[in-house]
Amino acid sequence: MPARQFWTTVLSMVVVFILQVAIAPSLALSEVVVEISLCFVIVNALQVSQSAATICAFVLGVLIDLASGSPLGVRAFSYSLVAYSINPLAGATMLDSLLARYIALVAMVFSGELVIALLQSIIGVDSDLTHSLLTRVLPGGLYDSVVGLFFLPLLRSKNNRDIRQPKSKKSLKETLPPV
Amino acid sequence: MALPNQNSRRLSATVVLIVGLLLSVISMTVWVREGEGGVLHQIHDATTIITAPLQSAGYSLTSPLRSLGRMVDNNGLSNSEIEALRDENERLRSEIIRLQENESETQLLYQLLEIRDAYGLESVGARVISRSPDSWNRTITINKGTNAGVRVGMPVMSANGLIGQVESAGPSSAVVRLITDQNSGVAVFIQGSRAEGIMYGSPDGTLYLRFIGLDVDVQPGATIVTSGAGGVYPKGIPVGTVQSVSFLPSDVEQSIVIKPLDRSAFYEVVLVIIGDESEIRPADDSTPDNGGGGEPSGSGGGGEPSSSLPNSSSSQPNSSGSQPNSSSSQPSSSNGSQSYSSRGSGQPSSRAIPPSNNYTLLSTSTQKENS
């Protein structure tokens, strides 16, 4: 990962952590707290390499687990799995359109929430999985999906960004075939 | 066809994932098994202390957002409830105008929010500075910690009644697990019938009362108060009202849903009952004059004498009809501590609050006056 991208990612993670810990509780609707961090993990996984995405997701998950009352490792597990799973789709042509990428984000948000619910149920913190699916996963996933709309500007496909951003002289020289 | 370079990248990512998942599983296992005093829990508590100022700042900055959230939450109200709230709003407006006439009187009323005078308990008033940053835990963070005498296990009240128990405490902040959390449990009794049971939280914040037999007549609207059994919570503190009762002929107990007196979203100021040696003592340190015996409690018990909770209606505007009943006739149960952190089914709890600080109120004259 280039140094600039590395520091951008680290800074973004700090900002997202602060948002999740300080702001998200106040955005709760009917006791459902939005998982801004999960949205970030998904968006970040579409921007960086698979290894980097998985590591970032794991670190952010651990931090959120420490700041919340959940067992340590629940979010780290879920976020890592989500980031690893969605990253290969970043270069797929089926995700070229913004809508397709947003649908992928929604699907992964629900998957992430579902994995958290399953883990909570497996380790015995949450006794009623069905109840959790109805009262946490479903509304939480919907809420996260709505918040995911704010991440749309970051979800532009790589091709679109390449078109919009003019290349420098140096990069043009490198790409042009030698005469 | 994938290039060798791509394959190696994918392989390294897979290795990273496997390592991450293994670490996560190990962390979860250690977390569940180590208990409250474990290393991971201590790291979590330290993180909570570090992030408390951050949460406090965010909580202050986002008060307009919370107002918006309340507005959205209130969309489900019926017309009659809205009318009642409008009437209440008018009354409160006139009350505010009256209070604004005298600033010193306002200060006095503010101090009255620190409920210690109302309940006659040794206690510390605290402001809520944050709530749980996720949906799976119902906790609040308060701005008082060990420096103010707050310790793990101490009961916490709002102006209307019991709301939870201190789960972890730092020097200047503490985390309170609410009674609506699915890992909370409170020994209670129904004020009218005196039937004792255990009240549990649930994932969606609904409170359920269990271990009430079919022979007990439970009416919706009945007040639920703490029984004091187990010694974790003082006796006689209101926690809610019966919302609905249902059961099948084949059931052995009634299914009772309890409506909390307060909603966690609206907590601003709370009271931590810290007690002192003159009023509160460890629950297993029973005194000869506590009566003992009595009807058996299904939850173990605290062996406490009558409660010292006075009538709170004099200074608490929202406590009418929910003040603790006299407990002089309530038999105390035998000694023993009870863990309220796990379900009746014996399911393990990762955030179990150990009943290490079991508090029982000693009798005072105010209780007899109320009765």
Topology, please?
The complex is a heterodimer of chains A (179) and B (371).
Chain A: H1 3-23, H2 36-45, H3 50-67, H4 74-86, H5 98-122, H6 129-148, H7 158-164, H8 169-175
Helix pairs in contact in A: 1-2, 1-3, 2-3, 2-4, 2-5, 2-6, 3-4, 4-5, 5-6
Chain B: H1 4-34, H2 39-61, H3 63-73, H4 79-100, H5 103-112, H6 116-119, E1 123-131, E2 139-142, E3 155-157, E4 162-169, E5 174-178, E6 185-190, E7 196-200, E8 207-210, E9 223-226, E10 238-246, E11 255-260, E12 269-273, E13 280-282, E14 359-361, H7 365-370
Antiparallel strand pairs in B: 1-2, 1-12, 2-5, 3-4, 3-12, 4-5, 6-7, 6-9, 7-8, 8-11, 9-10, 10-11, 13-14
Structural overview:
The complex is a heterodimer of chains A (179) and B (371). With 179 residues, chain A is mostly helical. Chain A has one domain: Arp2/3 complex 21 kDa subunit ARPC3 (Orthogonal Bundle). Helices cover 68% and strands 0% of the residues of chain A. Chain A is built from 8 helices and no strands. The longest helix of chain A is centred in the middle third of the chain and has 25 residues, at 98-122. The two termini of chain A are 32 Å apart. The relative contact order of chain A is 0.12. Chain B has a domain at 39-178: Rod shape-determining protein MreC, domain 1 (Thrombin, subunit H), CATH 2.40.10. Helix content of chain B is 29%, strand content 20%. Chain B is built from 7 helices and 14 strands. Chain B has helices at 4-34, 39-61, 63-73, 79-100, 103-112, 116-119, 365-370, and strands at residues 123-131, 139-142, 155-157, 162-169, 174-178, 185-190, 196-200, 207-210, 223-226, 238-246, 255-260, 269-273, 280-282, 359-361. A 6-stranded antiparallel β-barrel of chain B has the order 1-2-5-4-3-12. In chain B, strands 6-7-8-11-10-9 form a 6-stranded antiparallel β-barrel. The longest helix of chain B is centred in the first third of the chain and has 31 residues, at 4-34. Chain B is globular. Chain B starts with a helix and ends with a helix. Chains A and B meet through α1, α3, α4, α5 and α6 of A and α1, α2 and α3 of B.
